[in-house]
Design goal:
single chain; 177 residues; alpha/beta; DNA polymerase, domain 1; 2 domains; five-stranded mixed sheet; two-stranded antiparallel sheet; 9 strands
Length: 177
């Protein structure tokens, strides 16, 4: 048994004693009842299970939860799909984040299994572009490069890509020069 403590969606979790064999997705589902992160392939290939890790230097990245022990996230600050929307005092979502809004406007998903992974990956992209905008001509290839590693069996990706392009162009993610 090993000690695990971390911050998830802004809340301190732990210290808890857990086995190194507990994958992060299992920890989220079974220990915390955070079931929005989806188990897809179990081999780290589909990216349905990615969550966001926020680093002290201000950058964020996604990490797979199906192939990484929960202990890999020890002392880290992470965000899951449950942490994106603003909530009222009763805990009900009252405002979605811009990526969630964009995906809903385009009805980017069908079954929704892959959506949490796409939302997390796209959120990191949008946040990165707000700090480091790119040229207009680079937007489409950047979206493709970022989202291509995600597998969606329903939509063919077009609506995810289209909604991200509209969102990035509407926000401060593009250099005007």
């Amino acid at each position: 048994m090993h000690t695990l403590q971390l911050h998830i969606n802004g809340k301190k979790v732990g210290p808890l004693q857990i086995s190194e064999e507990i994958m992060m997705i299992e920890f989220l589902h079974e220990y915390l009842n955070l079931t929005g992160t989806k188990f897809g392939c179990g081999q780290g290939q589909c990216n349905a299970c990615v969550i966001i890790v926020d680093h002290a230097d201000g950058h964020s990245e996604t990490m797979k939860t199906c192939i990484n022990s929960a202990l890999m996230f020890n002392n880290k600050h992470v965000r899951t799909i449950e942490g994106h929307a603003e909530k009222n005092a009763q805990g009900y979502a009252v405002k979605l984040n811009p990526v969630q809004e964009a995906f809903i406007k385009q009805f980017s998903f069908q079954c929704g299994w892959c959506t949490s992974g796409f939302v997390n990956e796209a959120t990191v992209l949008v946040e990165t572009l707000q700090k480091q905008p790119v040229q207009l001509h680079d937007v489409e290839s950047l979206i493709e490069d970022t989202l291509n590693k995600h597998i969606c069996r329903c939509t063919g990706y077009v609506k995810y890509y289209k909604s991200m392009k509209a969102l990035i162009l509407a926000q401060q993610g593009v250099k005007k020069s």
